Amino acid sequence: MRLRTRITAIFVLLTALLLLGVFTFIFLFSGFYTQREFQVRMEGRLFQLATELETTPGVLTTSGRVSTPGLTPNQQPALPEEAVGVYPVPSRPDMARIVTNQGLPDAFTRDLLAGGTAAWEQGGRYYRGTLLDLSQGETLLLLSARDTYGLNKQRNLLNLLILAYALSLACLLLLGEYFATQALSPINRIIRKVQSIRAGNLDDRLEVGRGKDELAELAGTFNNMLDRLEIAFDQQSRFINNASHELRNPLTAILGLTEVGQARQRDAASYRELLRDIEREAQRLDHLVDGLLQLAQTGESGKGFTAVPFRMDEIAMEIKEAMTVSGPGGRIRLDLEELPEDARGITLTGSPTLFKVALGNIVENACKYSGNEPVQLRVLNDGNDILILVADKGIGIPSGELTNIFEPFYRGSNVRSSRGYGFGLPMAYRIIRLHHGDIRISSQPGKGTLVTIRVPNLQGQRGLA
């Protein structure tokens, strides 16, 4: 069921129930008021009849019926289908017999004996009775009538309410459909606009307007999503272009070397030289492919690795030891003087292998571009966070290029002559983000670079859960 249909159905249903309750109340209140009004009229009529009986002699026949025409006074019109009976009551058993002969229950007799008056209604006919102490003795005055006018009025009111209810339902259906369409029209415009956006027009945006309602928030949310999609598409396009360019260079070199080798007959030494060149370019291609695979595996989702607790100082020591074996490790100054007494302050849950790759890339870059100057690696605790500081006194990074250093394949203008592919920092950034951390770089060309890594420790990670 479409949303517009559901909104219309709910609106009509709720309003119909409300109208049904209102109309029912009107009908019942009108019936109660009509009945009460007729009862008041009967009481007035009974009072006037009793007054005439007390003031007019000789009104009884031997049968107990009213014999004097003046018993119906001018001041009070006769009631519909009115019947009046005046009965002498020699004894209480005679009164019970008289009441029973009129088809009235024993409760009517008990009310007469208890209070001198009684009222009853059965079959749409109303009965009123009162005991009078006349000169002829105790007398029962019995009045009955049918509220024909009230019944017709209630019947007409019921027909009118049914007709009004049916017309109201029809109007509610039309109004509900109209208002649901008007309420959903902005959403329909958003849907049509979003459906029209393709890869070729990702720069299009939804009109937010000046309102601050939920629809404006929805349009703003879509625009934010489109901003992220546009950035992602741009990054993907740049990544593909850069990757194609980087992969094409060693492939072109390999093809060129094979063509040179096939161009003419050579001696064994020349062929060995060509093979060494081909091997070097193939290794370069292998490094590129391996870097691309690692970069793809360190996405934002955090899937693909098992999180275990590990200590950051141990990671730092392993990196220094690995760097010492490969060459520049002797220039790394590892500072662990500010470690907390509680090891949990420098322990986090994640992938030690991935984090070692991230921190290793940063330290390796610092060693590579710092000449023979030492690189300082510090690990310390800062409340719920672990701080890792990597400082060098190398060539630095131009200030205008700091915003681009985490993009794959990007290399600073002052290091493009050095060997590298632009994988290290983007990979480190993604790994640190996987561990809910943050990395900041401050640098001055010719003076050095400071890399600050902040990741939550065990206590901080519990706060993120």
UniProtKB/TrEMBL annotation:
Catalytic activity: ATP + protein L-histidine = ADP + protein N-phospho-L-histidine
Organism for this UniProt entry: Robiginitalea biformata (strain ATCC BAA-864 / DSM 15991 / KCTC 12146 / HTCC2501)
Membrane-protein topology: Multi-pass membrane protein
Predominant cellular place of this UniProt entry's protein: membrane
Subcellular localization: Membrane
Sorted UniProt keywords: Coiled coil, Kinase, Membrane, Phosphoprotein, Transferase, Transmembrane, Transmembrane helix, Two-component regulatory system
Sequence ranges assigned to domain HAMP in this UniProt record: 181-234
Annotated SMART domains: HAMP (SM00304), HATPase_c (SM00387), HisKA (SM00388)
Transmembrane segments: 6-33, 157-180
Histidine kinase domain boundaries: 242-459
Protein name from the UniProt record: histidine kinase
Ranges in a coiled coil: 268-295
